[in-house]
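User: Please look over both lines:
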Amino acid sequence: MRADRARRRRPALRRAGRHHRVAMGRNTDRDLRPTHPRPHRRRPPGGKQSARRGAGPRRRDQRDQVGRAHPRAGRPREGLRITDSAIRPWGRPAVTTKRTSKLPAAGWSMAAAGAKAEQEILGDAPVTLPASVPAAGPETPPPSPGSGPAALRRIGAAVELLPPDAPREDWLAARRSGVTASEIAVVLGISPFDSPFNLFWQKLGLLDGGPDDDRLSLGRHMEPWIADRWEIDHPEYELTRLGLLASADRPWQMATPDRGLVPSCRCGLHRAGEAALAGKAPCCDPYDCGPCCDVCPTCPSIATPPTSLLELKTSGAYDGWGPDGTDEVPAYYRAQLLWQLDVLGLDEGVIVCFFLHTQQTRSYTIAYDADDVMFMRTRAEEFLARVEQEDPPPVDGHHATTAALRALHPDVDDDAETEVPADVAEQYRQACDAYREADAAKRLTENTLRAHLGDARTALDQAGRKLCSRSVYDRKGYWVGPATIDRLTPAKRK
């Protein structure tokens, strides 16, 4: 009898000791108090929990109220022209635009059974497209909206590969198999942020995009505010979030627009998850409001495709930007929006930019340009053909190319020597000589200019235009942290 009682006490004592040791191992005053195991309490039959687990499925209006994909299959959810003169030359013969890629055409996702749809991204592994989704090519007709797996939501001329809240790992894996709107300017060689050489190695998976810098982080942080501000001035539109989209005709052509624009019915009754006005029944399901919303064009259950797109930008200068209401935007942003319009089959888009230095917002309307789009498609197919053939584009002077070369070759073999081509050696020597001569000429000109300036701050040319200004100030000392230096030192001429 006594032994049975002791055996029954041992698990409780062990549990209490375990909780006490865990609590004493923490550093907060609250957790320094020993914790004790809670006694197990059974719910009586017919209680709240058993009632919630009663037999029979929940009603449609009780399902998925936290934003999960609806399990029922079959019901959808919700300036500057770009010309050859603006593009850096490739330096190699053009690759034919007709490609038979061994890369996955897109990171297609299939719906898993159950209450929550699961997205599975296949990444770099070769995949077979679903029968309802055609391969890339101008002769392939687009699939009908009613065909294809239920997981591929049809949005205009595109299909949704990933929802807006998909994990970043899935996002990167799906983007690797195509060219996105943010990458088309890189492919064209007109992006100030990235280079074709660096993007090529990212597509092969040998380099990653690296962590976000402050510029990208600030841009994403400002997007919701810019969108809300624009929506206040344009109540005729409802703003919708879009995920990773791909053209139904060309699965390698991808885009992730910041917002979609859907004409608003202004009824105020069909906002999913919010109580309706005037005593109407609330739309409690984020994705399936039921037949009461069949006449509302903004209801998420109908998933009305956008009629236009909205791109949200921030900038610290007006360089490349025209007056408000025009179509004058930087070429790389214009290429991005044109690519998005081509993916969704739309005719017009809007770029809204918030300028940090003046705290002003300007809006620019960009019309679809078939000539520019066809040019971009050709260059994108050439780039993907290079990726397939593992034929990197030529190096250029972009800072992203320098970073890529350093990352690809981080180590130095002190005993190794490499013979470079004669033309490369001669070009390097000429560039170094020209740099030294230009630097010496610049120092001479600066000293001559200082002699003319005297104590004046600003120098003007004969036409009255500002040439330069002089600044004199004290700089505080600062400590330079450790860093890895990777540079080339020119050899002295013998």
